[in-house]
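Hey, I'm writing a tutorial for new members on how sequence and structure tokens pair up, and I'd like a real worked example in the thread rather than a made-up one. If someone can provide the structure for the chain below, I'll link this post from the tutorial.
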Amino acid sequence: AAGVLFVGCAATMHLETVGKQGVWRPLSHEESNGIWRQKYPDRGLKIMGDFDGDGIKDEAYLRVGGVDASLGLFVSLSSAVPDRRLLLVERFPGAKVSESGINVVPPGTHQTACAKGRENCGSGESHSVTFSNPGIELFEFESSHLVYYWDKDGHIFKKEWLSD
């Protein structure tokens, strides 16, 4: 069952610096205290991995805020150009914040939602995605899963649906 959190198909994510995005805060105790979070390190709110493949660990985390109280996926790249270290990868207005989390996806080839029988897949949508660095899984508990992975040639995060 698809939730409100994710809209769209595979796309390129253009990076935004955070300064112009308004005030962002960590999730509150009420937003981050679901019992399902106990199985995730840092309750599914923060993860570490070498997402851009430079040999240095980066950090990804969720925040709430901006001008419309969106859920935001942020990545702090450890060795990026100074004014682009903290990146808002994507924002989700109307997200179910208390049901949203992130997890590390190991490098490799992964089946997409289209390969798993998702309806309404376009002719250009892939049945698998391969990336050489850890990816960032953004999910709504017991619902949609997306993976964000670094495109080293374009210096951007791309995303692909893993499940609806």
